[in-house]
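Worked example

This section walks through a single chain of length 135. The input is the sequence exactly as stored; nothing has been trimmed or padded.
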Amino acid sequence: MEQDLTNEIYRVFFKLNAVFEDVTILHTLCAKLSWSHLRTIIYVESAIKRDFYIDLLFYHRCLRRLIAIDLKLGKFKASYKSQMELYLGWLEQNEQKEYENNPIGLILCSEKSPEQINYLLLDQAENIKVAEYLT
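Given that input, the structure is written out below as tokens.
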């Protein structure tokens, strides 16, 4: 177990070293990382695990529901809707409590297509929303 942990630490260190060529000691490393760097460092190798990988998961106490947030690099793609539906279905069956409302999903992209949003009926959907982040 000790050897596995040591190997994991070295693997993460070398990924960090590849992301940051200047090895100056930083006071708070997370302040220097964007979320895309974190996704590079925390790579999920298994395809099955990647299918159920949610970037952010919150619980809204007033709404009494889970909120899944999927951060995407680049423009919105229609396949992101079905991926979010998969996340929400899994959350509903495996994590949702009896007293909670159904989970909702937010897909954050660098650009969203009003036409795709309209045709996928996401502008009318109550459980999945798409928004743009500022770059």
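What to look for: The beta strands are 56-60, 65-71, 104-109, 128-132.
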